[in-house]
Write a structure and sequence with these properties.
271 residues; two-stranded antiparallel ribbon; 4 strands
């Protein structure tokens, strides 16, 4: 996101290239060099840490498993690509009557998703014997919230430029970049990041389940609730309570699903 200004700046640089062929070649090489450096930085920044060796990555490369796990993401990516092509082909991004109402709806959607995602990552705390919720602290909740702020800023800039209608291909690139980043932050980041964090927490609880923590014959649901309380991990998506200050807390539907998965895992290990 921090590199988003590079796209319109590169477009403006190309748009303002002089007519002299030698100068055009020099300018083109310069712009291409900047684009290459930016791409390299993006690739380096996306590498996992610690970085695995190429042979280790190749040994674990299983295309069929990747297809089974990622086909939904691939389908969504194709749908988004088709939508982007349609918008670009028919120049829908240059129509203020369409972009401005869409921006308002996308902003409302992003705000709603960020608020619900942040609320699900709030934790219950007992202060002086009274249960209550604290502000969401996980980085995923903060990321979703700031994604909405930045997304609204991008869309607002795009809407203002559409009303002003500055001339030049470079400004069209600015509008397109602002719309692309704004829509991505509002329509994807606002809900996807909290969802990934919730999934990580669920998987961690299941992976950490061992007979020493959940002995044979125990109430797994109650033991899980006590474990969450002991580790200050009473997330609202796992634990529910009636009212703002409930007298007791119980596992939510998602928490019960986690308990069932833990039970299935322990039963399988006992065989």
């Amino acid at each position: 996101m921090l590199l988003s200004p590079v796209i319109p700046l590169a477009a403006i640089a190309v748009d303002r290239l002089p007519d002299d062929r030698s100068e055009i070649s020099t300018g083109t090489v310069t712009v291409a060099g900047v684009a290459l450096v930016v791409t390299a930085l993006l690739v380096l920044g996306s590498l996992p840490s610690p970085i695995r060796t190429p042979l280790a990555v190749l040994a674990d490369f299983k295309p069929l498993r990747i297809i089974k796990r990622r086909w939904k993401q691939a389908a969504v990516a194709l749908a988004v690509a088709g939508l982007v092509w349609t918008v670009w082909q028919f120049e829908l991004h240059t129509k203020p009557w369409l972009v401005i109402p869409t921006s308002i709806l996308c902003g409302a959607f992003g705000i709603r998703m960020a608020l619900s995602g942040g609320k699900s990552l709030q934790r219950w705390r007992r202060v002086e014997g009274v249960w209550g919720t604290e502000r969401a602290e996980p980085p995923a909740a903060a990321t979703a919230g700031w994604a909405v702020i930045y997304g609204l800023g991008y869309l607002a800039a795009a809407d203002v430029l559409l009303i002003i209608q500055p001339a030049g291909w470079g400004w069209q690139a600015v509008i397109g970049t602002a719309l692309a980043f704004g829509l991505t932050l509002l329509l994807i980041t606002s809900w996807y990041v909290p969802r990934v964090e919730r999934r990580r927490i669920r998987r961690q609880l299941v992976s950490e389940a061992i007979p020493a923590i959940y002995p044979d014959g125990c109430d797994i649901a109650e033991t899980l609730r006590e474990r969450l309380e002991g580790h200050a991990s009473l997330y609202r998506f796992l634990i529910r309570g009636e009212g703002e200050h409930p007298s007791e807390l119980t596992l939510s539907h998602t928490g019960l699903v986690v308990a069932q998965r833990i039970e299935a895992k322990l039963r399988q290990q006992a065989r």
